[in-house]
Amino acid sequence: MKNTTSEPEDSIFKKKGFFIALYSCLGAVAVLALVITFTNFGQPGYQADDYQEDAAYVGADQVQPHMAQVDEEAWFRPRQTPEPPPVTPPPRPTPPPVPPGLPDPELPEPTPEPPPTTPAPQAEQPPVAPTVSFTPFDESSQMMWPVYGDIAMRFSMDALIYDPTLDQFRTNDDLRISAEGGAHVQSGAGGRVLAIGRNVVRGNYVKIDHGNGWVATYGQLGDNKLVQIGDVVQAGQLIGIVGSPSLFGSMLGYHVNLRVTRDDVAVNPYTLLAAQGN
Hints:
The protein is α+β, with helices and mostly antiparallel strands and 278 residues long. The chain has a domain of 121 residues: Glucose Permease (Domain IIA). It contains two helices and twelve strands. Strands 1, 4, 6, 7, 8, 9, 11 and 12 form an eight-stranded antiparallel β-sheet that branches.
């Protein structure tokens, strides 16, 4: 009868022997490879560059700049924006030639010249009347009487006198000279006509500036006007005729109302009239 207990031990030893033999072969191969390697290093003429015979030699000038030298600060510098290339405008097409006699569309339209202006005919100016002057009245001289006649009512500014028309006593700032209706009334001195008008006190009147502040008003005249405002009159020149008395002088009959002022102050006309007028 066989002993069965020894079979497991025999199988274990058989397995171990197999692995020992395998590892021994692998170690021998490794040792052999090391020996061959060191042997080749020790042979004369061996250079490490022999393994690089197939590599192409690259010169320093063929190395890329970023590979030859790395600029570490380049990462922190701002990049420059490249300027755009200049834009060349397309050539302008040449317009076709303009036929003679037609305007050039490229040129501005010419401004038409205005027609020559013919000066308007000058209207004939009326002849300028020569300047007429007069001799200003002076208090040392005397005035002419506008009409010759009796005193119907005297000048009185200091005392009251009777007025038959108003039937009352009052002051009077003019001189009333009786005359016939239609008699000529003349200017007492040279002067310029200031005003022509009518009121209830003096009726129709002519106001004349005799110069040097002297102004005379000739009232109770007729409706016909013999002078105009601005006219220059001389002493003794006809300025009107005796007309119908006004409402405030109706009781005095036909007469001339003469009022004289010096710088707007009433003056007694009787003291200025010539003596032959009495």
